[in-house]
Amino acid sequence: MTASNSLTPHRGEHEPGAITEPDVPGSGTPTLLDRVQRVMHAQATLGPAVVLLIAVIAFAIVSDRFLSAANISLILQQTAVIGTLALGQTLIILTAGIDLSVGAVMVLCSIVMARASSELGLPGPLALVAGFVCGALCGLLNGTLVTRIKLPPFIVTLGSMNIFFALNLWLSRGETIRGSDMSPLLLWTGRVITIGDTRLTYGSVMMLALVAVLGYCLHRTAWGRHVYAAGDAREAARLSGIRVDRLLLSVYITAGLVYALTAWILIGRVGSASPQAGIMNNLESITAVVLGGTSLFGGRGLIVGTIVGALIVGVCRNGLSLAGVDVLWQDLAVGVLVIVAVALDQWIRKVRR
Amino acid sequence: MNDTAEPVLSAHGLVKRYGSVTALAGADLELYPGEILAVIGDNGAGKSSLIKCLSGAITPDSGEVRVHGRPVRLTSPIAARDAGIETVHQSLAVAPSLDIATNLFLGRELRRGGLLGSVSRSLDHGRMRAEARRHLDDLGIMTIQNPKQSVETLSGGQRQAVAVARAAAFGNEVVIMDEPTAALGVRESRAVLDLILRVRAKGLPVILISHNMPHVFEVADRVHVQRLGRRTACLNPAVCTMADAVAVMTGAVSPDDLPASALAQGPTAAARQADG
């Protein structure tokens, strides 16, 4: 249903033959495949969860170190940055948009935080606020271009990605800012909480907390329902009295704040702020969202799915490297997963009533 | 014409231009209490522009819309909704991935009471589902079992029923329906026509835009014919034939050539009754 992000999303769906006899099943009893399709259509996160489970079982068989507490902690730490970043990306994709500037915004925010602390000597909390303001402003710019000048999000964020990245290089003068020069608060997200043998960072905990907060906002508030409606059937949302432009602007700003939060997690994880960090993160965040069962056409998907998607990537990379497989094959595996996930999404969307 | 019933909704001299194209050239419309007013017209006659002006989707360049004689400015769908005008839009009415209750309350969700509602802005899904059920029952829509079902699992007619139920539930003054049967099969059209009659029975006047003459003549109390951007006549479907209506619509016959009884500028007997 590629037409669902156009203005007339469901024209042509009303074939008279299919609806004049609503009580009679169209083509005999559904096959097993039909049933699988229907269940996956109703439960967007089921497929990704099954994939994650299979991956975990497979790698547990291949390597006995895989399921050790230390390794699981490592995967969670490795996933925290991409996972949190992808949460912001999920908000944008739910509105049938896409954000190519995620990585650039995150790096820019991390540089703003680090320099506000190291150069300007601002206290930790103020340096954080500066970073969050930066994230919100980046979101405001993207959102304004999308809603006021009506440019496609792909183009807007392709352009702003370069702008933000250039700003980041200018602001950092291309130099990495060491953790020892910053307020310890900026590095706090990398601190470790030990529960039994599992060592979680505050960053990973923040990611999980954000899942709960965003999940609540998307499913328990009118704002969240409107986000889905705007991505699913924009014109219907507008005609229902939803101020779609204002809504989209709020989504882009919220995403910007999520990227700023990710910048904080990134500084804690790396222990410094580097202008070169996170260059690959744009596409990896989209990968996580797509693997998590969120549709690129908008209006369909769950915030939890994105974390599952990020974990699928994390688990595959970690498991393959434990198995001694070269990095290039990890990339290949992730690439195959993405294509399969999108193909699956297309198929699920064709579900028969 | 000889009646005192005041129109619920009226439009005077609406003009809307798109560049050099004039969609509305001084269009009028009156809707009286308790009636179904059909709006017919050829493609490009300004039907949709007229309806969009009344539902707040576009703002006319000039002209006036009144609700119960009071001028209103319908600058957005929300403004029209606040004025008590609900519209069932053609095929764009619902968000398919959301459930029925959410669709019914889209844009006017119910929040929980207390701090949960005011501070954390938590929605009251339970109450919305219960009320959705009640609104569907009100219109006798029994084929829909579960308001938690997502709309895409419904048939075309059931989707339209959800849209109609939503309009009937929140429209205080007027329900506008734009081609509600256009995409439906015979049996489903039948069900939607019955729904329209039930909305009228609830006391809400209805504006029905349709290309389908048999449907129009079956349910309408009066037929507003739109031609070249303005109203050319209001016909009485009890006296007129479908052929007359088509002839007036295409300009083959001038309304002046029809007998006076075929015209229905003022409220009809049914409407007068409903008002009294």
From TrEMBL, chain A:
The chain crosses the membrane at residues 40-62, 69-87, 93-114, 126-145, 151-171, 200-218, 247-267, 288-315, 327-348. This is Autoinducer 2 import system permease protein LsrD. Residues 1-26 are annotated as: Disordered. It comes from the Bacteria. It comes from Nocardiopsis suaedae. Keywords: Cell inner membrane, Cell membrane, Membrane, Transmembrane, Transmembrane helix, Transport. InterPro entries: ABC_transp_permease. PANTHER family: ABC TRANSPORTER PERMEASE PROTEIN YPHD-RELATED-RELATED (PTHR32196), AUTOINDUCER 2 IMPORT SYSTEM PERMEASE PROTEIN LSRD (PTHR32196:SF71). The lineage of its organism: Bacteria, Bacillati, Actinomycetota, Actinomycetes, Streptosporangiales. It is found in: Cell membrane. Its main location: membrane. Pfam families: BPD_transp_2. It is a multi-pass membrane protein.
Automatic annotation (TrEMBL), chain B:
Residues 9-253 form the ABC transporter domain. The lineage of its organism: Bacteria, Bacillati, Actinomycetota, Actinomycetes, Streptosporangiales. SUPFAM superfamilies: P-loop containing nucleoside triphosphate hydrolases. GO terms for molecular function: ATP binding. PROSITE patterns: ABC_TRANSPORTER_1 (PS00211), ABC_TRANSPORTER_2 (PS50893). It comes from the Bacteria. Gene3D superfamilies: P-loop containing nucleotide triphosphate hydrolases. PANTHER family: CARBOHYDRATE TRANSPORT ATP-BINDING PROTEIN MG119-RELATED, SUGAR ABC TRANSPORTER ATP-BINDING PROTEIN. CDD domains: ABC_Carb_Monos_I. This is ATP-binding cassette domain-containing protein. Keywords: ATP-binding, Nucleotide-binding. InterPro entries: AAA+_ATPase (IPR003593), ABC_carbohydrate_import_ATPase (IPR050107), ABC_transporter-like_ATP-bd (IPR003439), ABC_transporter-like_CS (IPR017871), P-loop_NTPase (IPR027417). Pfam families: ABC_tran (PF00005). It comes from Nocardiopsis suaedae.
